[in-house]
Design goal:
The protein is an alpha/beta fold. The chain has a domain of 78 residues: Nucleotidyltransferase, domain 5, CATH 3.30.420. Helices cover 30% and strands 15% of the residues. It is built from 3 helices and 5 strands, in the order αβββαβαβ. Strands 3-2-1-4-5 form a 5-stranded mixed beta sheet, covered by helices on one side. The protein is elongated, with a radius of gyration of 39 Å. It is a single-pass membrane protein; Single-pass type II membrane protein.
């Protein structure tokens, strides 16, 4: 093999890229033609459909249980007083119609003892009410 020319000048190597590009294009065409796009794994989802608006009677009701600073309990407009958990439970069951599962909204004064709020929560749980929430008052300027 002769690497140098007679004059001692070195010839620059030449790399022809055209055959390389041709081979890559043929491979791409082959892959695009032979590839099949099939949906082998599908997840069937049955989306809910909107019905007519619910009548007002079927909307969930809310019952407000207010607790004053001294611990007196009011269910709606009826005073339960400083009764025990059993008294509050009995008042809840007497005031709220049987079979309905309303949301119990607890409105407690800022100076209400925490134990009294827990007593109302326990009475609602024992009476079978599963939805419980708290009402808060926003103070302007904070």
């Amino acid at each position: 093999m002769k690497f140098r020319t007679a004059g001692g000048l070195r010839e620059e190597p030449f790399l022809n890229l055209v055959p390389l590009i041709d081979v890559v294009l043929v491979i791409l065409i082959f892959l695009s033609v032979t590839t099949t796009f099939s949906r082998t794994a599908q997840l069937q989802i049955d989306l809910p459909e909107a019905d007519e608006a619910l009548p007002v009677d079927s909307m969930p009701k809310e019952w407000v249980v207010a607790i004053t600073a001294d611990g007196a309990v009011f269910i709606g407009e009826r005073a339960v007083g400083l009764g025990s958990v059993e008294d509050i439970e009995a008042a809840l069951l007497a005031m709220i119609p049987a079979g309905s599962k309303p949301t119990i909204v607890i409105e407690a004064d800022a100076k209400t003892p925490h134990q009294r709020v827990i007593d109302v929560m326990r009475a609602a749980q024992r009476a079978g009410f599963e939805k419980l929430t708290f009402s808060v008052e926003r103070v302007e300027g904070r």
